[in-house]
Amino acid sequence: MRVAAALVCGLFMLAASPVLAQEAGNAGRGPNMEILKEKLKADKKLLVAENMVLTDAEAKAFWPLYDAYQTDLNQLDDRLGKVISDYASAYNEGKGMITNDTAQKLLTEALAIDEAEVKLKRSSAEKVGKVLPATKTARYIQMESKIRALIKFELASNIPLVY
What we know:
It comes from Nitrospira lenta. By secondary structure, this protein is mainly alpha-helical.
C-alpha cells in the first residue's frame, strides 16, 4: 500500500506540474520532469501488475490494451493540465478573480474532459472485458478509478474556487 501512496503523490505532482510551472517559470518542465513521469508510469504499471494476477495468456492480451489506455489518459491529462494552467494564469492576473468569459471557456473544456474520460473508461472496460474475466476487468477499472479519484482529490484540494 505504501507503493500506492507514493504513486498517488507522484502522480499528483505530475498533474499539478502545469500549475507549478505557471508559478515558477519553466522550473516544472524539462528532463527531470520527464524522468519523473517515466518513473511514475513504471510504478503504476508495477502496481497494476501486482494486483491483476494475470496468466501468461491474459498478460499478453492485456498489456497492449493497458498501454493504449494510458496513452489516451495522458492526452486527457495534458488537456486538463492546460485548463489548470489557464485557470492559474487568469486567477493570478485577476488577483483571485476571473472573467465570466474565461470561466465559461474553462468550464466547457473541463466538462468535455470529464465526458471524454468516462467514454474512454467505458471503451477500455469493453476492450479489456473481451480478453479478461469480468472480475479482473472490474478490478483493473476499479484500480484506475481509485487512482484517478485520489489525483482529482489532491488537485481539487489545491485549486481555489472560481470567483
